[in-house]
Amino acid sequence: MQHQPHRDFPTKPPSSTVSLDADGKTTDFRPFSAAKSPQMRTFHLSWLNLFSCFFATFSIPPLIPVIRDDLHLTASEIGAAGSASFAGAIVSRLLMGPICDLVGPRIASGTLSLITAPIILATSLASTPQSFIIIRFLVGFSIATFVSNQFWTSSMFSPSCVGAANAVAAGWANMGSGVTQLLMPLLYSLIMSLFHVPSSTAWRLSFILPAIFQALTGILVLAFGHDPVPSRNRKVGPKESVFSVVMGGLRDYRGWILGLLYGFCFGVEMTTDNIIAGYFYDRFGVNLQTAGTIAACFGMANFFSRPTGGLVSDAMGKRFGVRGRLWALWVVQTVAGLLCVLLGRVNSLWSSIVVMCCFSVFVQAASGLTFGVVPFVSSRSLGVISGMTGSGGTIGAVVTQLLLFSGDTMSKQTSISLMGLMMIICTLPVTLIYFPQGGGMFCGPTSNDDPLEENYTLLE
Amino acid sequence: MAAHRVIIMASLLFCLAGTCYGKVLFSSLKKTLDVTASPKHGQVVEAGLDAITVTWALNKTLPAGTDSSYKTIKVKLCYAPISQQDRAWRKTEDELSRDKTCQHKIVAKPYDASNKTVHTFEWLIERDVPEATYFVRAYALDSNDVQVGYGQTSDAKKTSNLFKIQAITGRHLSLDTCSACLSAFSVVSLIFFFYIEKRKKH
């Protein structure tokens, strides 16, 4: 890696317990114990920072029923803004990969959080549909922090627990998109009743909270996070340039397939975050707070569902190697697609809520399973592969939002079912992924040991 | 045969029950009330500042007894077609329980059939009413709160007598200043951090 780590992890672990593998990565992943080791402290700071970015980006959708009347938005403009929020993230996530390889995830995350916090504040200044769309585009940049977060955890935790570590970090951070759906309508009502301001002022004031939260976590990450050390055991080949690292990643077809898959698990999850509160509000006539609460259940399932995906990936990896991880990914994501189709077909409020909850568990577990495979594609180009996959997620979100949820041509329930169908179809390419040392879904491994270990695939 | 009869009776019962439980269709209502509103066609009034005066009375040409079941009159502010375009949350549906055309209540008053005068009400436009083009409609409700008649200021195609309500802006100087200060804090912290890092390196 090109950056100079500012603070290294201690070379000799203290007499309590940081056990390290040959690569200097820890094999200890204990998210619920007190964060004594620098890795766990950094882990917590990083996911909290990403949580604040999700909180901020998705703080706008739950208030759209109020904002749309204030800015006289049409359904097409709302759809365009939703797509724009993801489009901003596509480019930034792609760039984030090489940036992490260059300056390290700590500086990358912290800087991005502090730069995008003012943009969330700028939401309160929007007064035309065009400015609203532009702001949502710019706010979307902050969720590029996802790439640096996954890069960070993949660098700190060894292969035996990297699936779980990646998934817990991403899952707990994704909860931000759920918590915000709950908090923002409550905050809006509170501001209106406490300060006796009209609705159009109250929603603007509400955005101060996500902005402050994001800035604070950015500062904490910069001040207290630890940069990962470069991998010690890797046989370094010819001098690496940024260009070769980036091209190495882009040339790998597995990065593209994982990007597509992630587009249809995480991308679908993000689109659902955008539309689900409005769906319940408009279709079943519940009030803003209730719609927000239901939408929050969707996002907050991330607390256990994405980590479960990671744990399943690690467990399958232990028993069946990377083939097990691929199979688990295909099964879970296909089931998620089926549940999504069902969500668009059910007609009552309570059955919709139940199906939505099941759908949330499976689609989020699929995201966790995808990043259980990512660290194994390439060690040298880990940042780039993470960036490609992460970008794929947002591209999937833009595509589904644009195709299915802009304008009035289709009813929302039909769009949801079609989204499920797209998920099932676009999950099929996982059958094409093949690791020379680990095999693919339908083929066993071929002979191994690339003499230069140029691609350096990590396997148990 | 007996089975057929049971099915027919059951369906009739369900239809009637449906009517009792609010599945009233707008197309089944008769226009029995004359409703007027003070704004002229194309006039712009301001939310939170201006007031509109609405009047309603039973149409004089109708036979006696038309209003025998009317117990309440509910007057509402309704979106004109131009403000409903590309906005599914304001869509007009024939089934009144799903109709979203009239979302803002102006007033609800009890109805006395013996009182033949024209009723008037002056309404200060609430400041949370969104900026859009509107007309006024009054529903006559029976003792079960089910719509049994209506009247509106506009024509059947909702093209005449439409007026615009201008909303207040939520932006204030204090809010703008607060946002600017917090943004500056964010950027300054970043610059401060880089400065500290650079100093530590040397």
TrEMBL record, chain B:
Can you tell which superkingdom this protein's organism belongs to? Eukaryota
Gene Ontology MF terms in the entry: nitrate transmembrane transporter activity
Q: Which GO terms describe its biological process?
A: nitrate assimilation; response to nitrate
Q: Where is the signal peptide?
A: 1-22
Q: Mind telling me which InterPro entries this protein's record contains?
A: Transptr_NO3_Nar2 (IPR016605)
Transmembrane spans:
173-196
The GO cellular component terms are:
plasma membrane
User: What keyword terms does UniProt attach to this protein?
Assistant: Cell membrane, Membrane, Nitrate assimilation, Signal, Transmembrane, Transmembrane helix
Q: What does this protein do?
A: Involved in nitrate transport.
- UniProt family annotation: Belongs to the NAR2 family.
Q: Write down what this protein is called.
A: High-affinity nitrate transporter
